[in-house]
Specification:
three-stranded antiparallel beta sheet, 4% strand, globular, mainly alpha, 35 helices, 652 residues
């Protein structure tokens, strides 16, 4: 007797015939999803697939016991459930469950846990919750903490955190006794919601329920505290867990080191690394990458490079993330050439750079005026088979526009499109800015229209570029139209857009309108706050109209907003005090008073910079002003320390 079955192979189905003996062996050796179609004395008998509807034919149960193929027991259904769950065939799963109900089979909790995992994998968390609720009433299977945790994990992994908290409360309220895994899952959900205090309450509740926190509990809570900027509390947990006999892992240390690095507390982060060694926990790639990233954020590139060497000496090989972090740090410090040298080292150690590293370097080299090296790097990237993406093309296009070559940038744009890379708003914005820079307003407008026609929606930055371009070229009406269009499309103007619009209005003599926009920026609803560029535009506009006193009032308002004056501010007032007042003033008294005001506000660095401007212009401050600034700059302890060092050197 042969069984004709339909066997799943890949994404399709194929016919196969098996004897009873072969079928038993086949079923034991492989996890397959099969449907018994018919029985036949010949292997070659054909069966029409379309006639088969049920996932499990009656014959498999009818003939199975006689030939030893299957026992009519619950284990058969268990393997069927597992196979259908692995395949994600939920319709067939429901049919199996229905048959088990009809035949009054015993439902074990293990079956439901398998189905919960399948629902989680298929991103169907609601079905997992519904099935959990059906377990007792419909299938007479009592829910324990194992099935409860499985369903809870599905909700947490799906990001339904509030739903997970409700499910947890409901389950515990109905008598489910939570274990360590339950607490780990719910603390994770609570921390992700930012409710760290509530997570701490859950953590402190654990001993009351005879649950001892494990390393995952501590690590999860530490991560939540670090993200809530409560680093000291997170570090104190490290001591607490060790007192309780729970030894920290790599994850625990890495969470704390990452939190300290983000806070900028590198000294404590390094001490934690030393603590790792003492605990026999050797730093891994994540540890070193986190430290290197923190050093780069602090601008300590030399120490970051030294740590890279230490990483290699400790037989912990740097990866693409390590090198990319250092290269990006160098680029941000204006040292793209050094970044290119690190790129060479990266390649020598067998780590080919990706397109994001190339885009960062190319962009940095162009910003530093090293366009020749940027082009060379572009060619090297192409030759080495690294396919440029939208980001890399955008870096090249922006660089060409910075060089005053928007026409060449437009050619690169066409090449980019032909290679299947879709330009984004930033790419088009760079070209529009490039054409405005070369005073080719017509081409700038055509590029803008091309961007819109190609379905690329302009963002706030694009509108800022357009408004700035119009106002710089004396096209105030066009700038106002762009401004209204931006607001009409729900785009919020940034500081650049506001400053550009104010500049256009002031150039047209509409300083009062510019001041109204400034007040709009200062209102609470605006997320764009004026910077020194914005204020300097208005200072210049007011002084041109001869309203120096009004400009000084605005300066006082600026100081109240914690915005610092710069060299341009000083030059605007000095020029107009000398030219517009009768009798003219040299500005010494004005700047001296400005230094005093800054000093009173404890803005010592700004005050000292104004003093530098005064000395450069041969306008020395008053003796009392000198005394005030020097006292602020030279704190008594630091001065005494410097004196002690000098004396010790003299004695030696």
């Amino acid at each position: 007797m042969f069984f004709r079955i339909l066997v799943r192979k890949g994404k399709g189905w194929v016919h196969s015939s098996f004897s009873c003996k072969s079928l038993i062996s086949f079923g034991r050796s492989f996890s397959v999803h099969s449907v018994l179609l018919s029985t036949s004395s010949s292997e070659t008998e054909q069966t029409n697939e379309d006639e088969i509807e049920a996932p499990i034919a009656e014959d498999i149960f009818k003939w199975g016991p006689k030939f030893g193929a299957y026992k009519q027991g619950d284990s058969t259904f268990y393997f069927l459930v597992k196979n259908y769950a692995d395949a994600g065939d939920f319709k067939s799963l429901e049919r199996v469950l229905d048959r088990m109900k009809r035949e009054r089979r015993v439902f074990t909790e293990k079956i439901f846990i398998i189905i919960f995992k399948a629902y989680g994998k298929a991103n169907l968390p609601d079905k997992a919750v519904v099935l959990f609720e059906r377990m007792m009433d419909e299938f007479q299977c009592r829910q324990t903490v194992r099935s409860f945790n499985s369903a809870l994990n599905v909700l947490v992994q799906a990001g339904l955190l509030e739903r997970a908290m409700e499910f947890h409360s409901h389950g515990v309220g109905r008598g489910v006794s939570p274990n360590v895994l339950t607490y780990n899952l719910i603390i994770k959900a609570i921390c992700k919601l930012g409710l760290v205090d509530r997570a701490i309450e859950m953590f402190r509740e654990m001993p009351l329920r005879n649950c001892t926190p494990d390393v995952f509990t501590y690590s999860t809570l530490m991560d939540g505290l670090c993200k809530g900027n409560r680093i000291d509390e997170a570090v104190s947990l490290l001591d607490e867990m060790q007192i309780e006999g729970c030894f920290p892992s790599h994850v625990t240390f890495n969470v704390l080191i990452n939190g300290l690095c983000k806070k900028g507390d590198m000294s404590r982060a390094v001490k934690l690394v030393d603590n790792m060694f003492l605990k026999g926990c050797v730093p891994n790639e994540v540890t070193y990458n986190t430290l290197i990233h923190g050093l780069c954020l602090k601008g300590k590139l030399e120490k970051a490079v030294c740590l890279l060497d230490r990483m290699v000496s400790n037989k912990c090989m740097p990866n693409n993330v390590t090198y990319s972090t250092i290269i990006n740090g160098l680029v941000k410090q204006g040292r793209a050439a050094d970044g290119a040298r690190v790129l060479v080292s990266m390649e020598e150690r067998g780590h080919p750079p990706n397109e994001f590293v190339y885009s960062s370097l190319i962009n940095g080299l162009f910003k530093e005026g090293n366009s020749e090296r940027a082009f060379t790097l572009w060619q090297e990237m192409i030759e080495k088979g690294c396919k440029p993406n939208t980001v890399v093309y955008g870096a090249l296009i922006d660089g060409l526009c910075r060089e005053g070559k928007p026409d060449e940038a437009k050619k690169v744009l066409l090449e980019m499109v032909s290679k299947g890379c879709i330009p984004n708003a930033y790419t088009y914005g760079s070209i529009v800015k490039g054409f405005f820079k070369t005073e080719n307003v017509h081409q700038a407008i055509l590029t803008w229209k091309e961007m819109v026609q190609n379905g690329c929606t302009p963002n706030e930055i694009c509108y800022s570029i357009l408004i700035h371009g119009f106002c710089e070229n004396g096209m105030l009406q066009e700038g106002l139209m762009a401004w209204k269009q931006m607001l009409g499309r729900g785009c919020k103007p940034d500081t650049v857009a506001y400053s550009s619009m104010i500049h256009g209005l002031c150039n047209a003599g509409l300083v009062d309108d510019g001041l109204r926009l400034l007040n709009e920026m200062l209102c609470e609803e605006s997320y764009s706050q004026p910077d020194i560029v914005t204020y300097n535009i208005l200072f210049n506009g007011l002084c041109k109209q001869g309203n120096i006193l009004r400009a000084i009032d605005l300066l006082n308002g600026m100081l109240d907003q914690d915005c610092e004056p710069d060299l341009v501010t000083c030059n605007i007032f000095l020029k107009n005090l000398q030219e517009k007042l009768n009798p003219p003033q040299d500005g010494r008294e004005f700047l001296d008073e400005l230094v005093v005001r800054l000093s009173k506000r404890q803005r010592v660095v700004s005050a000292s910079k104004i003093v530098e401007v005064m000395l450069q212009k041969f306008l020395p401050p008053k003796a009392s002003t000198w005394e005030r600034v020097i006292k602020d700059l030279c704190k008594r302890k630091k001065v005494q320390m410097a004196i002690d060092i000098v004396w010790s050197k003299l004695i030696d």
